[in-house]
């Protein structure tokens, strides 16, 4: 729906080390991003600064060095491993005489290449439009041929203003479509809630092995590769857990440090699966030297999408890349599984993961036997019947209903609140 810059596949990569921790990025991760985008890195320009320069982000001397590197290597694009302001991008492009993109633009480009479903393409386009709207310099009037242009421009409306107006209209159209998608997803979640099917959502840093684990558990055949953001479109599959029954496993997009806010906003419908999950499987690449920082980066994004309160089971993956690590379960002070060490590639510890998942979900399920007097039987029995949580029932000699129920702890708490805690009086100890 929009023109993309016809850049080549050859780039000069720029990475600056800052003394300020907030500006810190990882060079090796950026090189993986560039590789995932299908771009060849011709030269890496590095440097150190205390803070970004307002004009070029780097100093003027370093900017000249980058321009010389572009000329010497005949590169088509300069990629910064940092977020640039529109003015900095424009100044650098004027100096280097080639396209300059920052870390956010690079991630958005990878997402654009990977989107397969209609929903995924809409979400990526929305994120790109929001990002590029701050860098708008003509070239958008083709978005809708019947509006804008000669004869249809408002009084005093410049070409740039016309482009901005068409851009806003396109964003509104995408938001309306995504709103319909969100409603469809919400209907699916409500149906699963009514059927009391718990949802397990896979989250984790990009390239942690989520899709490999998903395929190992479900045999779904989801695309998995040793590259960043191999998974973009969410996939749901049903699994069976002992003592719990059927559950829904959701494979989601991977997170990354300083994930662009436009992406978080655009993927709101997709990330809703994470917010509404009963438990999160936080998959971590245990062989990564910086796995602790990756865990924190994922937790930051979970907090940003209001999913930090969802119960989490840590899954330390890729133990096959470690020298001495056996599959095992680590437990908390209450004896509940906290961390599981596995290898999704080799299938090591998958049985332990199922065991831990069953224990965690079963701990959220309550079972009660109630003795309900005749005056309350109609309403309460009808409620339990609608929730499909009745295990067995019978009547005693006094006409009381003896009923055994099994449901999620959260549903029992809601029911207690609605029934003004009268249910507590009916529990048979």
From TrEMBL:
<dbReference type="InterPro" id="IPR030394">
    <property type="entry name" value="G_HFLX_dom"/>
</dbReference>
<keyword id="KW-0460">Magnesium</keyword>
<dbReference type="GO" id="GO:0005525">
    <property type="term" value="F:GTP binding"/>
</dbReference>
<dbReference type="GO" id="GO:0003924">
    <property type="term" value="F:GTPase activity"/>
</dbReference>
<keyword id="KW-0963">Cytoplasm</keyword>
<dbReference type="InterPro" id="IPR027417">
    <property type="entry name" value="P-loop_NTPase"/>
</dbReference>
<feature type="domain" description="Hflx-type G">
    <location>
        <begin position="198"/>
        <end position="365"/>
    </location>
</feature>
<keyword id="KW-0479">Metal-binding</keyword>
<dbReference type="Pfam" id="PF19275">
    <property type="entry name" value="HflX_C"/>
</dbReference>
<keyword id="KW-0547">Nucleotide-binding</keyword>
<dbReference type="InterPro" id="IPR016496">
    <property type="entry name" value="GTPase_HflX"/>
</dbReference>
<dbReference type="InterPro" id="IPR006073">
    <property type="entry name" value="GTP-bd"/>
</dbReference>
<dbReference type="Pfam" id="PF16360">
    <property type="entry name" value="GTP-bdg_M"/>
</dbReference>
<keyword id="KW-0342">GTP-binding</keyword>
<feature type="binding site">
    <location>
        <position position="231"/>
    </location>
    <ligand>
        <name>Mg(2+)</name>
    </ligand>
</feature>
<protein>
    <recommendedName>
        <fullName>GTPase HflX</fullName>
    </recommendedName>
</protein>
<dbReference type="InterPro" id="IPR025121">
    <property type="entry name" value="GTPase_HflX_N"/>
</dbReference>
<comment type="function">
    <text>GTPase that associates with the 50S ribosomal subunit and may have a role during protein synthesis or ribosome biogenesis.</text>
</comment>
<dbReference type="InterPro" id="IPR032305">
    <property type="entry name" value="GTP-bd_M"/>
</dbReference>
<dbReference type="GO" id="GO:0097216">
    <property type="term" value="F:guanosine tetraphosphate binding"/>
</dbReference>
<feature type="binding site">
    <location>
        <begin position="251"/>
        <end position="254"/>
    </location>
    <ligand>
        <name>GTP</name>
    </ligand>
</feature>
<dbReference type="Pfam" id="PF01926">
    <property type="entry name" value="MMR_HSR1"/>
</dbReference>
<dbReference type="InterPro" id="IPR042108">
    <property type="entry name" value="GTPase_HflX_N_sf"/>
</dbReference>
<comment type="subunit">
    <text>Monomer. Associates with the 50S ribosomal subunit.</text>
</comment>
<dbReference type="InterPro" id="IPR045498">
    <property type="entry name" value="HflX_C"/>
</dbReference>
<dbReference type="GO" id="GO:0005737">
    <property type="term" value="C:cytoplasm"/>
</dbReference>
<feature type="binding site">
    <location>
        <begin position="204"/>
        <end position="211"/>
    </location>
    <ligand>
        <name>GTP</name>
    </ligand>
</feature>
<feature type="binding site">
    <location>
        <position position="211"/>
    </location>
    <ligand>
        <name>Mg(2+)</name>
    </ligand>
</feature>
<dbReference type="GO" id="GO:0046872">
    <property type="term" value="F:metal ion binding"/>
</dbReference>
<dbReference type="Pfam" id="PF13167">
    <property type="entry name" value="GTP-bdg_N"/>
</dbReference>
<feature type="binding site">
    <location>
        <begin position="229"/>
        <end position="233"/>
    </location>
    <ligand>
        <name>GTP</name>
    </ligand>
</feature>
<dbReference type="InterPro" id="IPR035647">
    <property type="entry name" value="EFG_III/V"/>
</dbReference>
<feature type="binding site">
    <location>
        <begin position="317"/>
        <end position="320"/>
    </location>
    <ligand>
        <name>GTP</name>
    </ligand>
</feature>
<comment type="similarity">
    <text>Belongs to the TRAFAC class OBG-HflX-like GTPase superfamily. HflX GTPase family.</text>
</comment>
<dbReference type="GO" id="GO:0043022">
    <property type="term" value="F:ribosome binding"/>
</dbReference>
